[in-house]
Amino acid sequence: MRVVHIIERIDSSYGGPAVSLPLFLKSLDKLHVDSEVWSVSMDSNVDNKLLHDFGVNFSVFRRSFGRYLSLALVYKVLLSCVKRDVDIFHFHSVWSSPTWFGMLLCRIFKVPYILSPRSSLYDKSLQKRRALKSLLSVLFLRSLISKCEFVHCTDDEEERDVLRFCNCRTIVIPHGVDLPGESHRQSSSSEELTKMDFGLRSILYCSRIHPRKNLHIAIEAFANSGLARLGWKFFVAGPVDDRVYFNSISQYIDKNSLHNNVVFLGMVVEPEKSLLYEYCDVFILLSSFENFGMSIAEAIVSNSYVIISKNTPWSNLEQYGVGCSCEIDASEVANALLEYCSINQDREGSRIGDYEGYIRDNCILWDDVAMKFESEYRRIYES
Q1: C-alpha to C-alpha distance for 360 and 363, rounded to whole angstroms
Q2: pLDDT digits (tens, 9 = 90+) for 242-270
Q3: At residue 63, what are phi and psi to the nearest 5 degrees?
Q4: What own/partner pairs with CB < 8 Å and gap ≥ 24 does 130-135 have?
Q5: CATH code at 2-176+364-382
Q6: Transmembrane residues, as ranges (predicted)?
Q7: Integer angstrom CA distances of residue 71 from 40, 61, 148
Q8: Tens of pLDDT along 320-379?
């Protein structure tokens, strides 16, 4: 059984999917599913250490024009549909030309296909460029999606929004978590990070810099809390996805004299990324919406205290003492930071939450996710 995953980008700067897909395929490989990734890049090169570390088979096709349109990829899908050498195509994301052309060819040649929207069919997501998305939906997208073998949703809210978008078969399978191995502090040779000044304590934001992620609210909360004056540091790890937004944040930092406390690291990949999670005390992400939030999962399995928005599918954090959920409000987030300080008086005792219990009771491992998908793949393959 051969399954090809098509995703518009798979390099590390793409964010969560560039982490979750390799982890998923690593577990799927244990079940002897022949998997491969086809993606698009400007220069046919991909910077994703996980793909290489896990031995994932992948092919990258050069972009022809537009954001992600690759005629070479379209031709490759066409040949595979004609030859019938791919049993199932699994598309990741919706508003992307590789998905549109791929699903169209699959439907023409009657090749089974699956869709993982990855938050792109949330009602909130549909509001962005609403007119264009409505037009594309009416012209062909609703029809193509309704013919999927199934649409993979990661939680009930996403399933509800998908079914509101069109009539299709859905299954709900959360993304998994990957339990860490030995401490990266011991195993990594990264001198740059080990020599960094992490201050009295430190906060980590690990995501792309985009208005949807509300980094400006997190930094404003940091400023309001007064922790900068106590020697705290705020590390921002992630690519700039919106230059105007980034400039506005930089102006706020300068205006409030935070340039010695807020550190922009750019894109950080493994093993340095795991080192950051281990060294930093608090992880913060105040997204307007997330269908999962891979960086939140990475923070929790690294035993970081997490402060996240209520618009993410992570709950029961307070019950286990591993974090808290807040409204996207600088005052409320500042109070959450100060509350963290009040219950954690020293660095050595700062990670007192029941992380093992939280993961056991609220998370699913990637191996279990792979077993659920393998069962669905097998059903389609044998039908």
Answers
A1: 6
A2: 999 999 999 999 999 999 999 999 888 77
A3: -65, 135
A4: 133/95
A5: 3.40.50.2000
A6: none
A7: 10, 8, 23
A8: 999 999 999 999 999 999 999 887 755 454 567 889 899 989 889 999 999 999 999 999
* Domain-wise residue ranges, the chain: 2-176+364-382, 184-362
Separation between Cα atoms, residue 251 and residue 257, nearest integer Å: 10
For the segment(s) 184-362, the CATH number from 3.40.50.1000, 3.40.50.300, 3.40.50.2000, 2.170.120.30 is 3.40.50.2000
**Which residue, chain included where needed, has tokens 């599918």?**
313
How many residues in total does the chain contain? 383
Phi, psi of 153 (to 5 degrees): -115, 150
Q: What's 211's DSSP letter?
A: G
* Position 15 confidence tier, pLDDT thresholds 50, 70, 90: confident
Kindly give, in sequence order, each residue whose CB lies less than 8 Å from that of residue 376, ignoring residues fewer than 6 positions away: 114, 149, 150, 171
pTM of the model: 0.83
